[in-house]
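User: Fold this one for me? It's Peptidase T2, asparaginase 2.
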Amino acid sequence: MPWANLVDIANPVRVAHALSRQRYNSLLVGQGAREWALSQGFADKTMLTDRAMQHYRKRCRETLDKGLSPYDGHDTVGIIGLDKQGSMSVATSTSGLFMKKRGRLGDSPIIGSGFYCDSETGAATATGVGEDLMKGCTSYEIVRRMAQGMTPQQAADSVVFELEDKLMSRFGRAGDLSVVCMNNRGEFGAATNIKTFSFVVATARQPLTVFRTGTPAGENALLRRRR
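Assistant: Here's what I get for Peptidase T2, asparaginase 2.
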């Protein structure tokens, strides 16, 4: 289960994992999430470094000149796991849209949008413009289509490009939409509506391997392997 707007707690995915064991109150935000994390023994740690502050100020000046936009060059971290017993897990972590309004939530902490997992079928995680990804319940829809018989690649491609078409039709614009997914057999897929999007795969038999997906749909190219 997720939390959102958690400040000055290192390894926040561990907090989310601990919350997932709670029967109630399993989605916490802001100060409530922080207080719960501290009560469970998670350490209070200042995460803002001098280098990050310098970069932030530089970006603030650029934003004043160019306007609000997604943070190019950095992205949400999304991870999907499958163990030997067939149990699956998924995690997402992000700092969100740069220069976002106080209290803004994107797709990452929202079940079904930023992530979704069902060990009987598979899991998916998403990144991009959260306001657009939430309009399609993107991660849930990918897992639903895998449950109906689509391969992970088919599900990823169909969801991303159908959502992009719908956004363009309704609003005349579509933000960045990128997804990674895997079924409970370890088959994976990825899709994006931007030029290129990289992701990594590793298994007991396959070393850490970097792939790149991009438009046109369904073309996942091997970039390199790490020995």
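One thing worth pointing out: Confidence is low (pLDDT under 50) at residues 223-227.
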